[in-house]
Specification:
Layout (H helix, E strand, L loop, with lengths): L3 H27 L7 E5 L3 E3 L5 E6 L11 E8 L31 E3 L3 E3 L7 E5 L8 E2 L2 E2 L2 E9 L11 E10 L3 E6 L2 E3 L5 E7 L7 E4 L2 E2 L1 E5 L5 E5 L6 E10 L2 E12 L3 E3 L2 E3 L3 E7 L22 E5 L4 E5 L2 E4 L3 E10 L2 E7 L3 E2 L6 E2 L7 E8 L22 E5 L2
Parallel strand pairs: 1-11, 2-11, 13-20, 22-32
Antiparallel strand pairs: 1-3, 3-7, 4-5, 4-10, 6-7, 8-9, 10-11, 12-14, 14-18, 15-16, 15-19, 17-18, 19-20, 21-23, 23-28, 24-27, 24-31, 25-26, 27-28, 29-30, 31-32
């Protein structure tokens, strides 16, 4: 026969086992473990203050399942090291903090993104997010921050509290002030490019900025400390006045219209030759491919074709009686266009051009002296007033000297 105490101990043991199981089940149901957080790769980790741009966020695993409608928040960090996202969804709240020790007023605390889309029919690892307008820079005393950091946080829903919608993905995101452009120095230069300009303005980032001048890329961009100016190398461009400067950075785009003018300058080599000789001259400029030099083999022809003249001063084709006011003393013929930026022609210094007819005068050599080599797209009389007329301007590299030796 069992002893009464033995039966009592057996009953208590069984009751404890059942009670423990029930307690464990309740605990597991009431406080489920949060889903593991997955780092996200953003298509762009920076953007302009004020949002409006759309970025994509890609996970390495399929966290955006069909059962989940992802909710995205931008949680403000400031200018220091990025902190972790909240473990569960936070109620959106704009924060207008106080300025302490010269710190910036924070214009944004937790900002919800209203446009979030899963990408692709069966995609479960990629979403598109439009950055909300509330993701902005703070200010202090009328001065805006140059940069600010946020955490992009993705949750399974909008339930707040300790057991609210869990965090499933996160990434660091930064914003920057939009650049401004004020001055370009110098504001004019040769079509060949290669010269350096200095651009003044604000919010130029130390890295990652690109720019174009007349639609062509600037190179060697170097931003000064403080981001108030930068230098860059000018690209080659056909002669044109008032081209635009456009800058792109993490803070957005800035445009300055009529920022720069390209003069139709050329550079030649060699730039000297003895009298009564024949010399091949290499000419570098821009826009040669569009010119028609088909009459250049007949030196001295006055027509609407392109020509290369040796001029005693600044070429002037306007009418002076029946000839040009200031035409060439010689013509560089047999023009071979190598590329849009280079041509080679042959200068015969045995025969100069007639002042009245423009024709070559056999036996009359080009006088000794210093001249300007000039490329024109129209060699007719009075062409300067014609539509589309262009002429290379005098630059240091375009002078040519006829010497004794």
């Amino acid at each position: 026969m069992n002893h009464p105490k033995t039966r009592l101990r057996t009953w208590r043991t069984r009751a404890a086992l059942v009670g423990g199981t029930v307690t464990a089940m309740i605990a597991a149901t009431a406080a489920p473990a949060l889903a593991a957080t997955v780092p996200l790769t953003l298509s762009s980790a920076t953007g302009p203050s004020g949002g409006g741009n759309t970025i994509t966020a890609t996970a390495t695993t399929n966290i955006f399942t069909t059962a989940i409608t992802p909710v995205v928040e931008f949680q403000y960090v400031g200018t220091g090291t990025a902190a972790s996202c909240s473990a569960t969804y936070l109620a959106p709240a704009a924060v207008a903090g106080t300025v302490t020790g010269g710190a910036f007023v924070q214009n944004a605390g937790v900002i919800a993104a209203t446009t979030v889309k899963k990408l692709g029919t069966n995609a479960t690892n990629k979403i598109a997010v439009t950055v909300p307008a509330g993701v902005v820079l703070g200010s202090s005393g009328g001065t805006n921050q140059s940069t600010a950091k946020y955490n992009l946080c993705v949750y399974t829903g909008t339930t707040t509290g300790a057991s609210g919608s869990p965090l499933i993905g996160n990434a660091a995101y930064a914003i920057a002030g939009q650049p401004t452009l004020t001055t370009v120095t110098p504001s004019t230069g040769p079509a060949l490019g290669g010269n350096t300009i200095t651009v003044a303005g604000t919010n130029f980032p130390s890295t990652g900025m690109t720019g174009t001048l007349g639609g062509l890329a600037l190179s060697n961009i170097v931003v000064a400390t403080g981001g108030a100016s930068f230098t860059a190398t000018v690209p080659a461009h056909a002669a044109q006045t008032g081209v635009s400067l456009i800058i792109n950075s993490a803070g957005g785009m800035a445009t300055k219209t009529t920022a720069y003018s390209y003069t139709n300058g050329i550079v030649i080599s060699p730039n000297t030759a003895p009298q009564n000789t024949v010399v091949d001259v290499d000419v570098q400029g821009v826009g040669f491919s569009a010119m028609d030099f088909t009459s250049s083999n007949t030196v001295g022809t006055i027509d609407t074709k392109a020509h290369v003249y040796l001029v005693p001063g600044k070429y002037d084709p306007t009418t002076n009686s029946s000839n040009k006011t200031l035409g060439g003393v010689a013509e560089c013929g047999s023009v071979l266009v190598v590329s849009d930026t280079e041509l080679i022609c042959t200068m015969d210094l045995h025969d100069s051009l007639d002042d009245t007819t423009g024709a070559a005068v056999s036996g009359t050599p080009v006088p000794k002296g210093t001249y300007t080599l000039t490329v024109v797209n129209d060699g007719s009389v009075g062409a300067q007033s014609g539509t589309g007329y262009s002429v290379s301007l005098i630059v240091s590299g375009a002078t040519f000297t006829v010497s004794d030796y």
